[in-house]
Amino acid sequence: MKTSSSTIDTGSGATITINHDGTFNLSVGAIEIGQGNRTIMKQILAERMNMTVNQVHIKMDVDTQITPEHWKTVASNSTMMVGRAVLDAAEDVIAQLKQNTSIVLKRPQEELEVGRGRVYVKDNPNIGLEILEVASGYMNPDGSASGEPVIGRGRYRVHQLTALDPETGKGIPGPQWTVGAQAVEVEFDTRECTYRILKAASVFDAGKVINEATARGQVKGGMSMGLSFASREGFLYNNAGLVLNPQLRSYKLTRFGENPSYLVEFVETPYLEGPYGARGIGEHGTIGMAASLANALSIAAGVELNILPLTPELIWRYKGGCP
Amino acid sequence: MISFDFEYYTPTTVEEAVRIFQQADSNGKEPLYYSGGTEIISMARLNQLRTGAVIDIKGIPACNVLQIQQEQLVIGAAITLTALSEANLFPLLGETVRDAADHTNRNKITVGGNLCGKFIYREALLPFLLADSQLVLAGTKGIRHVPVHEILNGEPRLEKGELLVQILSDRRYLDLPFVTVKKTKMEKIDYPIVRISGLKTKEGIRVAFSGVSAVPIRSLIIEEVLNDSAIPLEERIESAIRLWPVPILNDILSSKGYRTFVLRNTLFDTMSALERRRV
């Protein structure tokens, strides 16, 4: 179970502009670091606008001169916070599109709907305009114009966070909780104290899985990272404090082929504050792996292992191999 | 990045290589013979090595031989570990070098570099120690043939400027029963904390070791103890460990105690397997 320990003033923003062909430009402040943030933000906007993801262009980079700020790309919070800012920006765009269309069609805004690249009358979808016709105001056939250019602005701010009471530990450190369970299966050589990790499993309550492939990739990558530091990573120092393994030649990571088979599944209990019910799952794959591996090896070796990394030599020592 | 300039020579004969070495040496270049380059490049990047001239021996035909000639297997110093495994003319050697480093590096690492380099493991040496191979060395006084034991068992003792041209192995040893096992701290691809290569001859079992100590070794004293079949194997192994001729390593890969534990187990498995085999 994990929440973030974000600062109290965490917020996020998103902006949307519309191209002449009716496609959307989305800009958000979270950083794409391989977690699939850009893919998911496109999906969230496309879902809200009822259009295809190909009709949303997302700015990959962050340009601090023009990109709205996102608090930090940390804390397994980007999908939730930035996703909410994107939805807020989408509402802003929809309102502006309706306003422009309302003038042209002479219908109240409440009777209008936006979707499939159009702004149309709810009761009679045949009556409507293409988004591209009203995105920068509307040009009448006689050359006169009405309406205003559409620029969407979205914001989200986490409220009600409080500092933890140092005495009681009470407080609200983060906006959301994600629960899950993880397990590891090992094959242990009782003589040599060597082992193989056969299978590693994770099940998380993702609230709503927005993109199954990136969600699985994120969790699986986290599990690999967790198992790697649990089993072999760590700097070694001499008495003078110098690092003895400063290269990947001597600082070992799990290599392809040494990985277990991974099982990743999700359950979906919607988080009402999250975009479409989504919860954070960014770092959760990593968290339980070390404890799972240590528990599996403790059972196999018959000794309680509570130091990392869990090398065969460490297990051998725990089993009384040598002082 | 390599932070210094150096000259690069590509001789096509052994004599030329030796001559270039002498010249470069007398000019204060501290030359090195260069083959696969993995070690020189790695160490130069880390500023652990500096040279003013490298002499690439890969263009010398004699260093590129890999064939049986009369009753001997001739292996040129510039033959790569990958080529040794693929040709597999000496299965103990082929299997031993198959899990040194990784495949990309084995495509570059040559047998000559592995035998004469600075890295302490030199795993390709073990099969040659067991087969009583001969080294063909070239120096200012010409070519000499020397038993591998005299020059490379333990610390390398080549003379300055001497070039390892070939390794000659008696054909009789090539297809004898063998075991070769590498144990690492954890990884498939890592230096050994214990590497044992064993060969069963009519006269007895021969064993050589890498990773246990700071030098690879074959010890006749250890072999004598291990072959004394009147004594139970476990006791022979304890005696062998007691008589270990060089200090057992204690480093970041393994403590001395754990290394000894792994050595004991691996030696037991190796000896048990070889004792069951028939010559």
UniProtKB/TrEMBL annotation, chain B:
InterPro entries, per database record: CO_DH_flav_C, CO_DH_flav_C_dom_sf, Diverse_Substr_Oxidored, FAD-bd_PCMH, FAD-bd_PCMH-like_sf, FAD-bd_PCMH_sub1, FAD-bd_PCMH_sub2, Mopterin_DH_FAD-bd
Coiled coil: none
Entries under Pfam families matching the protein: FAD_binding_5
Domain FAD-binding PCMH-type span(s) in chain numbering: 1-186
UniProt xrefs under PROSITE patterns: FAD_PCMH
Keywords: FAD, Flavoprotein, Oxidoreductase
Domain of life assignment: Bacteria
Protein name per its UniProtKB record: FAD binding domain-containing protein
Species assigned in the record: Paenibacillus alginolyticus
